[in-house]
Protein 1
Amino acid sequence: MLVATAPTAEAASPASAPPPEAVLAEIRTIAGTDLATWARAIDEGAYPATLMHRLGDVGAFRLHVNEGHAVGDAIEGMALVSEHCVSTGFMAWCQNTLAWYLINSENAAARTRYLNAAANGQLLGGTALSNPMKSFFGIETLKLKGTRVAGGYKVKGILPWVSNLGADHVFGAIFAVEGRDTPVMALIDCADPAVTLKPCERFLAMDGTGTYGVQVRDLFVPDEMVLADDAMPFVKKMRAGFILLQAGMAVGLIRDCIALMREVEAPLGHVNRFLEVQPSQMADSLAGIEAEVAALAATPFDTSPAYWRRVVEARLLAGEVSVQAAHNAMLHCGARGYVAAHRCQRRLREAYFVAIVTPATKQLRLMLDEMPA
Ligand SMILES: Cc1cc2nc3c(=O)[nH]c(=O)nc-3n(C[C@H](O)[C@H](O)[C@H](O)COP(=O)(O)OP(=O)(O)OC[C@H]3O[C@@H](n4cnc5c(N)ncnc54)[C@H](O)[C@@H]3O)c2cc1C
């Protein structure tokens, strides 16, 4: 596992960081050049480790390491990436979420050892919270189980899909503990011999995201890697940021779908004007999502039920409009968008991921159904 030399939580403070506008300008350049060139190879299964480190070098994963931890700049950073490639936008979310866990952890030892390395992208990794997020709403039970032992926990179980992983990466996970009602959240180190990464079957898209099935066999998780001894209040504190950060994928994807519709206006506008959805309508929907997400991103620790409902509604809308935008981009591009080399059909495949990654459209609807009106 690669960890920066003697990183400190203090070193991750905003004082040493370049201004967000400068970071966003660097991300825009990387996304529009190297990422645009690599997007097809990533779609076909190449994991872009070098690119992830370059994004980390320019500060793409520390935009939420600011005073108050507003997440708007981090979302915009991921939108710039997702305009070209949702796979990389998702990996950026995995990385930003890993840093988000450390920002929120009260375990000083974990923060000191891992926050700076994750926020700088030197230590790559992700999050395995789909299963726990579903378990909290009764959709499935926790797949990882732990036992308290001296100095930490012994953990075992199997997770079907965890992304942005590699041999020296880490990821955040939640496990049930024998004899206790409250689960624990901790980092898991892929380099440990007790952890095995199993390649997944081919997906519809997202094959370059370093997604693996993870087998954990009696892994010792030291107290230093525990993010929260009681995962429930921790999840409650960081859940809005976790969900809002996913909006970056949607915003970037929708922007490009609108661009795709406009690119074919000159040759096909005379017939495309008969289509039900026009780019200006998609642009209005996008503007609404961007405004709402920006407002919510300013206060990710708001604990009011009204705020939480808005977060869940915004996430639901982002997934639904992603699919709608990609569908309409296909109708506007027609056969030229249907050829394998064209990014339009990739955008359609990527859009479904935004709608099915946890919390998926169906789970978001379940959550809204269970909330007070
Ligand atoms: C490309 C990709 C990357 C992902 N990356 C992550 C990640 O980084 N972290 C993370 O926590 N989650 C990740 N997921 C999981 C994702 O967030 C969802 O939880 C998952 O797609 C299932 O959601 P669902 O709403 O369809 O689940 P549901 O429909 O409620 O049920 C799905 C459940 O059925 C079982 N199941 C169904 N099909 C299969 C199958 N083919 N193999 C194994 N089990 C199966 C599993 O228990 C699974 O949890 C990833 C999924 C994909 C496709």
Protein 2
Amino acid sequence: MDKYDIVIGLEIHAQLRTESKMFCTCDNYSVGAGPNKNTCPICLGMPGMLPVPNKKAIEWTYLLGMALGAKVAEKFCFERKNYFYPDLPKAYQITSSTMPPIIGGSVEIDDNDVLKKIRINHVHLEEDAGKLIHPKIGEYSLVDLNRAGTPLLEIVTEPDLRSPREARIFVQDLRSILRYLGISDANMEQGNLRCDANISLKPQGQKELGTKVEVKNMNSFKMIERALEHEVKRQEEILSENKKIVQETRGWDDAKGKTLGQRSKEEANDYRYFPEPDIPSIEPNKDNSIDLKEIKNWLPELPKEKRIRFETEYSLSKQDADNLTSDLDLARYFEQTLAEIPQVAGNDEIKKQKAKKLANWLITELLAKLNGQGISILDCKIKHQNFAVLIEKIDSGKISGKIAKEIFSEMFVSGRGVEEIIKEKGLSLISDEKEIETIIRAVISENTASVQDYKSGKEKAFGYLVGQVMAKTKGQANPQIVNKLLKEFLDKE
Ligand SMILES: [Zn+2]
């Protein structure tokens, strides 16, 4: 791509995890409820019903605005967006995009150490529609209105993104912020975080934007990047043949690996927006029921702040800190486990040392297992205290790396304690110097060439001999004692 500039703007929908729906008291979490069980006359859109806005949803909208460094609007208005669709019983959706509650703000993304501020145009609050189900057999469709009226935030960016990769990173960062705030599960696969993209190409350097295409149905981070990459290629081909891009909505078909045309773009006034007559406008600075100062107090340490703290407080590399803080629960697991390791409290040097070791174990071993088996860190069976004991045993040379991995695997499955597993599996280390000496003698006599190499200054040979001793003890010799004794022996030889 050197002939065209890519311009991408995103519209992201995040379902809020409030207890009740946006305008009624129905349960917002209808997991397990049968179709249409979680409904009432309000969310079913019966005539004459009065919607009452969910205070928590409004407060959380302001909280997100504060986290994005945005401006809280003096006044915002719910309005009706009129359209007919079978999953929308009222034939209008209550939204707030014309006078939104949150204006501006930004998210700073980090693409391989290149920092870039992505501006937010606005955030508005609205209700979701129901779901249509199209059975494979039979010529009919079904509707489930459990989702109708659930609270949704729509986050609209400025067209600041310049590559499909940047778009993917932005959505990942936004997901982290939503989860840190605790206001949304923000899970793309489960549909409580959804992303649509507007993408256009223009000749490099040209100011005027090209015709944009809206891409929908991207249900994972990978799909965002793949779909937009495909769309860049498709538009590039059209433009290079001097043809025109059609302004339209296209859906991503992941199995086919391409976007397919769905419908040409409606004009905004097709929706006949007008203020929702049943809900007064909301003015947070005048309305006593909204306390912006109090909401500001709810702001937690955000992902970027936590990452920077992990780098300084624990001397972790940026990448390790990034890995640990990408998931708030993992970051918590890390800090709670670290606190259980003796000597960590009050000693910065030891704290940094142990933090590095623990971070390595969490990132390379634990995350690999969790991701491999699709388990959340919240369901991890290894208790903080047991993980701390494991790290301590490795560090003090009481167990070798090999045995540690064996114990770790067992802990991961059963959640049992370290000592219990060592006892049961007979994994205790050979620390008896006499026993180790005998093995060292055998290894030296069997590997005279390596002994000569070591004597002529080849440091690698020492590691090889240590490995031989460990192999003969099936990894059960205390590595510190092996190192010490082997050195003594070789220097004597
Ligand atoms: Zn309801």
